[in-house]
């Protein structure tokens, strides 16, 4: 598996005691979710040293390793999952040095951290960000890496291409002269309503989509473009929560009435 050498590997710990799993409870932007303890491997550390350091910082415990459960590359970064057991310390006394070093505003933005035990029987009832059950059962994790493309059914390909072109998407063609609009590492494929390519959605309908784009420029630049091109803002700027946390968004509509959200993340 390949990984980006500029993104240090991360170690995650699977610590089970009396049918309970050690987790970190996170509360951020009003959302509660759970992550496995662990973190990034620092310069000069081995994977095992990083896991022991993180266990003390986050959980307040000393650990010994049992075995490597899984080694994967995901999103350009390598993750190593280890089964481990507690050999000393007091669970729940971690000092979170990274969190303690932040000022009050940054602490509020990053939410809270708490070491907790969760019964294995309750895992499915909570938002646990890693597919833990396959790991515990010795099965490989199956999950998606990224969204590659979305097929957009439109009434007028030229009008849609022109609209999204104004938002910075690059027009192109692919198999059989089909039109696509690319941005970053993704694209929109345009299907003409009534002559869609197969296979296709059960009910391909223009104007039925909600799309969210993350802008590569500030929201002020986006708003200036919308005003210049007389594209009405339906709502915003408003604070929303995206895949990576808090963001600020404006909403517009494309020629088919699809709701198009344009967002920027806090760059602090």
From TrEMBL:
Domain of life (superkingdom): Bacteria
Keyword set, alphabetical order: Hydrolase, Metal-binding
A UniProt-annotated Pfam family: Glyoxalase
Gene3D superfamilies reported for this sequence: 2,3-Dihydroxybiphenyl 1,2-Dioxygenase, domain 1, Nucleoside Triphosphate Pyrophosphohydrolase
Protein name: NUDIX domain-containing protein
Domain Nudix hydrolase span(s) in chain numbering: 5-140
The keyword Amino-acid biosynthesis appears for this protein: no
Ranges where the VOC domain occurs: 146-265
InterPro entries, per the entry: Glyas_Bleomycin-R_OHBP_Dase, Glyas_Fos-R_dOase_dom, Glyoxalase_1_CS, GlyoxalaseI/FosfomycinResist, Nudix_hydrolase, NUDIX_hydrolase-like_dom_sf, NUDIX_hydrolase_dom, VOC_core
């Amino acid at each position: 598996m390949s990984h980006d050498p500029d993104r240090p590997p991360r170690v995650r710990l699977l610590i089970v005691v009396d049918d309970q799993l050690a987790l970190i409870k996170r509360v951020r932007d009003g959302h509660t979710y759970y992550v496995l303890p662990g973190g990034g491997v620092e310069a000069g550390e081995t994977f095992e040293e990083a896991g022991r350091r993180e266990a003390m910082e986050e959980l307040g415990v000393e650990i010994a390793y049992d075995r490597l459960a899984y080694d994967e590359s995901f999103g350009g970064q390598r993750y190593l999952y280890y089964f481990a057991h507690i050999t000393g310390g007091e669970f729940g006394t971690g000092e979170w040095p990274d969190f303690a070093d932040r000022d009050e505003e940054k602490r509020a933005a990053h939410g809270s951290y708490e070491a907790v035990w969760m019964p294995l029987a309750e895992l499915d009832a909570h938002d646990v960000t890693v597919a833990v059950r396959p790991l515990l059962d010795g099965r490989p994790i199956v999950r998606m890496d990224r969204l590659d493309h979305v097929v957009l059914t439109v009434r007028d390909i030229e009008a849609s291409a022109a609209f999204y072109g104004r938002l910075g998407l690059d027009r192109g063609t692919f198999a059989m002269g089909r039109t696509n609009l690319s941005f970053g590492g993704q694209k929109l494929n345009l299907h003409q309503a009534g002559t869609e390519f197969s296979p296709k959605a059960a009910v391909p309908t223009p104007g039925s989509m909600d799309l969210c784009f993350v802008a590569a420029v500030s929201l002020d630049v986006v708003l200036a473009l919308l005003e210049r091109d007389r594209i009405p803002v339906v709502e915003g700027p408003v604070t929303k929560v995206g895949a990576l946390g808090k963001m600020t968004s404006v909403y517009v509509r494309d020629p088919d009435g699809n709701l198009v959200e344009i967002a920027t993340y806090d760059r602090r």
